[in-house]
Amino acid sequence: MSGFAGPHPLSGCPRRIAPWLALGLLACGSPPSSEPAPGAVPLGPPPGDEFRPEDPRWKRVFVASSEDGLHWEPLPGPLVTTASSPQLVRQGGELRVYYVQHGRSIAWVPLAGGDAHAVDIQGLDGGMQVDPCLVSLPDDRLRLYLVHHPVSADPGLVGSNRVLSALSAGDGEWKLEPGVRLEGAWVDPDVVPLPDGGVRMFLTRSTREVASARSPDGLDFTVEEGMRFVGGGVTSTIPGDDGWWMYFHEAGSLGRSHSPDGVSFQAAQRLEIPAPDDGAWMLESPSVLRDGERWLMAYVAAPTSEGQVR
Questions:
Q1: Cys-Cys link to 15, which of 116, 219, 277, 301 (CB 3.0-4.6 A)?
Q2: Could you give phi then psi for residue 65, rounded to 5 degrees?
Q3: Residues near 277 by Cβ (< 8 Å), separated by ≥ 6?
């Protein structure tokens, strides 16, 4: 893939956070201005490559903030390029974004500034490692769920997908856990703890269907009957005062749905968020968390030949 020409807000590195974002997030806890970063280059596809909007290398991860979880103001971006499937997490008092780099492997970057770090999983050699989902365990260890393909380029939704998991003590070392969490036509595991113990994993079965599976220990999962949601996919589900909020992408934009029990979800609300104004984009793969009185969201802008769907 050809590189960008000219100055770049990410200091010329496709996996480095922008310094203006670090300053903005550290300043009194207030989100940065929405003005474009000085010297920013167009965010269109890399010159010299054949246009393929489904290619994850052409995607960009952005960050936005909100006061109510529905109306969003993008921070100047992008946060990271040639990236997809972000997950925004709080780890050890630090906000981080885990993501898929170049459509092949997992990395993370601190939201408050610094270099990106590759996730090297001991015991997992070859293939493609995508769709990260990080959860904290009661003993302070970390479990990383991911989708593994036995190929080197993203084939999308196929029947041979395996949902695997790896453990870390928080020191950056990851070790693959034995066995397979789930296998089949699943992508983008979204794992949440349940009030009565155990976890539920939401899974995207197609771009418009969300299924689920339950586990008492986070390892052995049983697929639940029916669909949790129809009309969107690639979810980020978080608890609220009165139930669960599921964020997802649908029809080229982002939406959310509420559920009192995590099983039956209501009709979708479309998020109010502008797309980048320098081309035709689709928004996808939202990852949301609460940060004090505000909401933060990492999400993807993907180029399209047909324009933003509204």
A1: 116
A2: -125, 160
A3: none
Contacts of 16 (CB under 8 A, 6+ apart): 10, 80, 109, 115, 116
**Is residue 224 packed enough to be buried (19+ CB in 10 Å), middle (13-18) or exposed (0-12)?**
middle
Q: Determine if residue 278 is left, alpha or beta; phi over 0 gives left, psi from -120 to 50 gives alpha, anything else beta.
A: alpha
pTM: 0.81
Task: Kindly report, residue by residue over 199-229, the tens digit of the pLDDT.
Answer: 999 999 877 899 999 999 999 999 999 999 9
DSSP assigned state of 22: H
| Region of residue 33 (left: phi > 0; alpha: psi -120 to 50; beta: else) | beta
CA distance 54 to 303: 8
Residue-range domains of the chain with CATH: 19-303 (2.115.10.20)
* pLDDT tens-digit readout, 52-76: 666 777 888 999 999 999 999 999 8
Handedness of CA 115, 91, 256, 226 (dihedral sign): positive
Contact (CB, 8 A) for 300 and 57: no
Grouping H, G, I as helix, E, B as strand and the rest as coil, residue 161 is: strand
Burial class (CB in 10 A: 0-12, 13-18, 19+), 150: exposed
pLDDT tens digit sequence for 249-292: 988 799 999 999 999 999 999 999 987 766 678 899 999 999 88
